[in-house]
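Researcher: For the annotation table, I need structure tokens for GDP-L-fucose synthase. Please keep the output clean. Sequence:
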Amino acid sequence: MNLTRKKILVTGARGFLGICVVKKLVEIGAPSKNIRTYSSRELDLRVKENCEKAVLGVDVVIHLAAKVGGIGFNRARPGELYYDNAIMGIQLMEAARLAGVEKFVAVGTICAYPKFTPVPFREIDLWNGYPEETNAPYGLAKKMMLVQAQAYRQQYGFNAIYLLPVNLYGPGENINPESAHVLPDLIRKMRNAKKKNKSEVVLWGTGRATREFLYVDDAAEAIVKAVQKYDKGEPVNIGTGFEISIRDLAGEIKRLIGYQGTIVWDKTKPDGQPRRMLDTSKAEAEFDFKAMTSFKEGLRRTIEWHLEEVADYDR
């Protein structure tokens, strides 16, 4: 698909990933005047009429908008996470179909995978069990877009695709302690511990769980390539094929921050999913995507941004 003459709606365009996707679209030649963006205050997509307004006259929808957070946020607000994400996806895709949109790109989440998925996660394992409990309401709400996309393709010939990105990170990420994901939250805690000369910093869980992280610019590139080149109904993983334990991640952040104290693991808190790492071969085969930013380099850039641009959180 040549995007230079397409009118494109990017939901969540003011967010961490959305900003990078819009930038990437412009880089490949999509005129900024053809890229439609709204904040959640301008158009609340939980309202059906707003979804209909958003897609009017649009050729492509890239649906990134989501309510999302870390383990603590997931435990505190499971109802909101399920309803808000499910209703946005359902109503927006239906509005796009009725409006004659050419292509709908649904961006899901690795949280949709079963709790004990064999590593590396392959797309064919997506339905072989229930998601990890703390992430399940969010993961299942986003997973319903895959069901809807495949059903609409079968009945209406609607070109909807579904992508499964891993945890994203990079400059500009969410740093709110109430809803931040694990990596920025670890950086915040280490920074504050160093600033206040604390002898120890307490982290959730055992540290044994593993995670895979994808630099946000790479994620944006993957999404834009999928818009251009992928038109099939099967879901596609978006990641790096690299995993690191939370314990090792914390140690690396501690080193880069220069914190000299002790890390204490609060084993009364949940680890979340035991392991996460994707098989990314389908993305490379289908639309020539391979992550280019090494985790070492991406983490360095991210911590530099935190140190230079972000005011300290004292919580």
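Researcher: And a one-line annotation?
Model: Residues 92 and 244 are 35 Å apart (CA to CA).
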